[in-house]
């Protein structure tokens, strides 16, 4: 198991970053990628499958899409860093990725054209969440097999949805073997299957309308022609996830809800025999809040403010009551933050993992450029 972030990045070709929403998961994925590109000679890609478009902002880009986009020399120059490797970024475009899959797996160009024009296909690929999950795994497999990158960092949806993401290949293989698909694609005139399908079709015609049912039947019949390719790819994607080249990282903050979500993600990985490389805890408070010396100093600032004002020349220049009030406010604020730190420590104690845990301090400003992302990467590398 990798003890440091640098070791984690060096030992794997693929890092999958997961966890609850709102804990800095996207920024963490970007920080891993930027740090690896800055400090090693590897070709790095950060790929987001999270529908919320935060990664572009974190990298200082206005927008990017399904095609990988290089982080240019001007972006690096603005961050005052000269990278040893290269960094690219991409965001999943569900519709474009599905279209590419159809072109890849359809037995003929005519079949591909029929599928792409089918109304049900257009609705499913544009709207359904599970459609997004499967095509995300396909996109991941595509870039991994392309050989264009030495390291791929994937930013996944929030942890509950990440389980759908992890299970998408198996669900797709099960779908092509499901009784429902056989029922929908059974010709009306073929033996027992057709006889059993007739009552279903008759009811569906009345409830949904004949044109809708015809679109369904046509769609699933066309999809069935791509079954071998889809099943083969689903199995290959599953093999990629369990490979020794792949590691998962859970991201959280030290609060009860996010820690529970992180535990859910960690348990989901264990159930599927997937490799947990480590846990990142963002927005950590300073360690001095937990020290006895810090508590003693804060208590003295509150209890002995008037005397301290007289003893410190820089404070004596201000009106005594004002300076004493400032000291008391600082001491009391320290005590309040120390209580928050104690609560955070109790929440973090509930984290169930033997994997390395890396902490990142609270960031006061929004991360909107590559320099900010690199700063987070440096904190992660220090542990």
What is the C-level CATH assignment of the largest domain? Alpha Beta
Compressed to H and E, one letter per element, the order equals: HEHEHEHEHHHHEHHHHHEHEHHHHEH
CATH architecture of the largest domain: 3-Layer(aba) Sandwich
Decide which structural class fits the backbone: alpha/beta
- Distance from first to last alpha carbon: 15 Å
Question: What name goes with the CATH superfamily of the largest domain?
Answer: P-loop containing nucleotide triphosphate hydrolases
Q: Total number of β-strand segments?
A: 8
Calculate the mean pLDDT score and round it. Answer: 81
Uncertain spans: 187-197, 203-210
Strand percentage: 5-15%
Count of alpha and pi helical runs: 19
Quaternary form: single chain
Written overview of the protein:
The protein has 383 residues and is α/β, with parallel strands linked by helices. It has 2 domains: 212 residues, Rossmann fold (3-Layer(aba) Sandwich), CATH 3.40.50; 58 residues. Helix content is 61%, strand content 13%. An 8-stranded mixed β-sheet has the order 3-4-2-5-1-6-7-8, sandwiched between helices. α9 packs antiparallel against α13. About 5% of the residues have low confidence.
Q: How are the elements arranged and paired?
A:
Layout: H1 5-11, E1 14-19, H2 25-39, E2 43-48, H3 55-58, E3 69-70, H4 73-78, E4 86-91, H5 94-105, H6 109-117, H7 119-127, H8 129-146, E5 151-158, H9 159-176, H10 179-185, H11 191-208, H12 210-224, H13 227-242, E6 246-253, H14 256-271, E7 276-284, H15 292-303, H16 305-311, H17 313-316, H18 320-348, E8 357-361, H19 370-382
Parallel strand pairs: 1-5, 1-6, 2-4, 2-5, 6-7, 7-8
Antiparallel strand pairs: 3-4
Helix pairs in contact: 2-19, 5-6, 5-8, 8-9, 8-13, 9-13, 9-14, 11-12, 15-18, 16-18
């Amino acid at each position: 198991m990798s003890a440091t972030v640098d070791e984690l990045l060096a030992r794997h070709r693929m890092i999958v970053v997961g966890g609850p929403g709102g804990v800095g998961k996207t920024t963490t994925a970007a920080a891993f990628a930027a740090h690896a590109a800055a400090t090693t000679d590897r070709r790095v890609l950060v790929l987001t499958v999270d529908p919320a478009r935060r990664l572009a902002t974190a990298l200082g880009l206005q927008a990017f899409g399904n095609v990988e986009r290089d982080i240019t020399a001007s972006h690096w120059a603005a961050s005052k860093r000269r990278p040893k490797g290269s960094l690219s970024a991409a965001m999943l475009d569900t519709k474009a990725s599905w279209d590419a899959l159809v072109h890849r797996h359809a037995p003929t160009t005519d079949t591909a054209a029929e599928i792409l024009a089918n109304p049900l296909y257009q609705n499913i690929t544009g709207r359904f969440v599970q459609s997004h999950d499967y095509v995300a795994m396909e996109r991941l497999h595509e870039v991994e097999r392309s050989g264009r990158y030495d390291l791929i960092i994937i930013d996944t949806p929030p942890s509950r949805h990440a389980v759908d993401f992890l299970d998408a290949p198996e669900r797709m293989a099960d779908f092509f073997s499901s009784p429902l698909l056989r029922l929908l694609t059974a010709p009306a005139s073929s033996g027992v299957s057709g006889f059993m399908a007739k009552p279903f079709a008759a009811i569906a015609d009345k409830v949904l309308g004949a044109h809708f049912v015809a679109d369904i039947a046509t769609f699933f019949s066309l999809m069935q022609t791509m079954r071998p390719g889809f099943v083969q790819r689903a199995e290959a994607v599953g093999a990629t996830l369990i490979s020794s080249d792949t590691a998962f990282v859970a991201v959280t903050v030290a609060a009860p809800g996010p820690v529970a979500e992180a535990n859910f993600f960690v348990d989901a990985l264990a159930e599927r025999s997937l490799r947990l490389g480590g846990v990142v805890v963002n927005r950590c408070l300073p360690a001095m809040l937990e020290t006895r010396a810090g508590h003693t100093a804060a208590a003295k600032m509150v209890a002995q403010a008037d005397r301290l004002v007289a003893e410190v020349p820089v404070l004596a220049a201000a009106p005594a009551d004002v300076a004493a009030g400032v000291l008391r406010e600082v001491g009391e604020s320290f005590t309040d933050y120390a209580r928050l730190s104690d609560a955070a420590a109790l929440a973090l104690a509930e984290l169930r993992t033997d994997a390395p845990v890396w902490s990142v301090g609270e960031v006061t400003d929004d991360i909107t450029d590559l320099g900010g992302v690199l700063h987070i990467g440096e904190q992660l590398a220090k542990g």
